[in-house]
Design goal:
Number of domains: 1
Low-confidence stretches: none
Order of helices and strands: HEHEHEHEEHHEHEH
Number of helices: 8
CATH architecture: 3-Layer(aba) Sandwich
Shape: globular
Strand content: 15-25%
Distance between the termini: 47 Å
CATH superfamily: P-loop containing nucleotide triphosphate hydrolases
Structural class: alpha/beta
Length: 216
């Protein structure tokens, strides 16, 4: 089993390197968004799209349905859905095919500034798979548990950015922000941390400054 997993990851890494080269040639920044189901990934992307000051597109990964992609397209964002079926994560080859589909629809990579990849809602499997991204963004929703970074260290350890999402609910769910920050600092000491609310817009401008490839 370990040998098979190593082979799968090695194959994935080859495609991830090809993706990264393709993204660099097009001059587009690519962000891999990882979180548990219900943490507010799609709502955050909708809010970012509304506030964005440049060309942005999204690749959405989910086990079933294209609901999230349709939500994002309704918000005015070019979006392509990857339906994984039984797979609990996205792989680099899936992203490569999704980019091909995006370009087939007329949205060329070279015309984008930011490409967001909404990974499958899962805190384990996606951590192991490089997609060719420039940055990894991990969400921790208020109310999910302040110790979640300690329970899923691999995912948070690889994060460049950590967003405490649904911060507008912090008081209602008795969210202990200092405890959550200590947990994040333990496993992801180099990650930049933001507190955001897709509903109110709090923290969105600061997050955009960190995500956008050029100064806003």
């Amino acid at each position: 089993m370990l040998t098979l997993t190593d082979r799968l990851l090695a194959h994935n890494d080859v495609q991830a390197a090809a993706n990264r080269q393709r993204f660099a040639a097009a001059g587009v920044k690519v962000v891999n968004l990882l979180a548990s189901p219900g943490s507010g990934k799609t709502a955050l992307l909708e809010r970012l799209a509304q506030a964005a000051r440049g060309a942005m597109a999204v690749i959405v990964g989910d086990l079933a349905t294209d609901n999230d992609a349709r939500r994002l397209r309704a918000a005015g964002v070019p979006a392509v859905q990857i339906t994984t079926g039984q797979a609990c994560h996205l792989e680099a080859a899936m992203v490569q095919r999704a980019v091909d589909a995006l370009e087939a629809q007329g949205q060329l990579l070279k015309d984008l500034e930011l490409l967001m990849i909404e990974n499958v809602g899962n805190l384990v499997c996606p951590a192991a798979y490089d997609l060719g991204e420039s940055q990894r963004l991990v969400l921790l929703a208020a109310g999910e548990g302040e110790d979640k970074p300690l329970k899923y260290p691999a995912l948070f350890h690889g994060a460049d950015l950590v967003v405490i999402s649904k911060i507008d609910l912090a008081e209602a769910v008795a969210f202990d922000r200092p405890q959550a920050l200590r947990a994040i600092a333990t496993v992801a000491p180099k990650a930049r941390v933001f507190a955001c609310s897709a509903r109110s817009g709090a923290g969105i401008d600061a997050l955009l400054q960190a995500l956008w490839p050029v100064p806003l």
